[in-house]
Amino acid sequence: MSRLYAVGIGPGGGGQMTIHAREVLERSAVIVGYPVYVDLIREEFPDKRYLTTPMRRETDRCRMAFEEAKKGSEVAVVCSGDAGIYGMAGLLYEIKVEYPSVELEVIPGVTAASGGAAILGAPLMHDFAVISLSDLMTPREKIERRLRAAAMADFVICLYNPSSQKRAGYLRWACQCVLEYKPADTICGIVRNIGREGETYRILSLEQLKEISVDMFTTVYIGNERTFMREDKMITPRGYANG
Ligand code: SAH
């Protein structure tokens, strides 16, 4: 039976890729992915056949991968972070029904939330909610409901896809929703280019977060009521210190 892998390569590839992911890429003859991700690994695996499609052509990319696997090659579809978190694993499973002769396996990776958390300090030490601000596939009203519910319940909130050219004001809008439930001095953090060249982070208040602009290579963290900043790190207490 031919095999297709959905491989999460970590936020920046390289050292943040798991050993399992690396093994699977080594044994694959063909690597399929969005050009930015393929560029993260091309140097390390120069002898592979690479197939790329532009963004928004996700279905084509998945079919292309299944077609290659059907012909008998081991094929890997690469995603940044974890393939099963806003990645390609779900779509591959949906399309799999058309390719009964191909077996699909998901190889997990370090997702942006945990990669960025390690840079900020320890912001995700307690219950947290991950919310994508992209309304490409989720109506804005539903995103807003989820933001409000998470803020109301005092979850630490981690935002993926906080911005794009078409959604420039979305972070501001999200902060406005959250500010109805969380105080303006809530500790927040942003991390850009996790594990990649030009990695940077900043810790700031919720009020300040509302005023800044970020890009699509950024992950945003909004603390809970006990999150604090110490020596330029964002920390959410687990609770051990006070029993
Ligand atoms: N499958 C990916 C998420 C893809 S959604 C994962 O598990 O991490 C794309 C969003 O993820 C980006 O808009 C950004 O918010 C976040 N992201 C992914 N890689 C990142 C990186 N290297 N640095 C900062 N944010 C990143």
What does this structure look like?
There is one protein chain. By secondary structure, this protein is α/β, with parallel strands linked by helices. The chain has 2 domains: 2-110, Cobalt-precorrin-4 Transmethylase, domain 1 (3-Layer(aba) Sandwich), CATH 3.40.1010.10; 113-235, 2-Layer Sandwich (Methyltransferase, Cobalt-precorrin-4 Transmethylase, Domain 2). Helices cover 31% and strands 25% of the residues. The protein has helices at 19-27, 35-41, 58-70, 89-96, 112-120, 140-152, 170-179, 206-211; strands at 2-8, 30-33, 49-52, 75-79, 102-107, 121-122, 128-132, 156-160, 187-192, 200-205, 218-222, 228-230, 233-235. A 5-stranded parallel sheet has the order 3-2-4-1-5, with helices on both faces. A 5-stranded mixed sheet has the order 7-8-11-9-10, with helices on both faces. Strands 6-13-12 form a 3-stranded mixed sheet. A hairpin with a 2-residue loop joins strand 12 (228-230) and strand 13. Helix 3 packs across helix 4 (89-96). The longest helix has 13 residues, at 58-70. The chain is elongated and about 55 Å long. The N and C termini lie far apart (54 Å).
Shape: elongated
Q: What is the second-level CATH architecture of the largest domain?
A: 2-Layer Sandwich
- Write down the secondary-structure element order: EHEHEHEHEHEEHEHEEHEEE
How would a textbook summarize the main sheet? Answer: 5 strands, parallel
Poorly predicted runs are none
Whole-number mean pLDDT: 94
Distinct helical segment count: 8
The fraction of residues in strands falls at 25-35%
Oligomer: single chain
Annotated CATH topology of the largest domain: Methyltransferase, Cobalt-precorrin-4 Transmethylase, Domain 2
Q: What is the gyration radius calculated from CA atoms?
A: 19 Å
Number of strands: 13
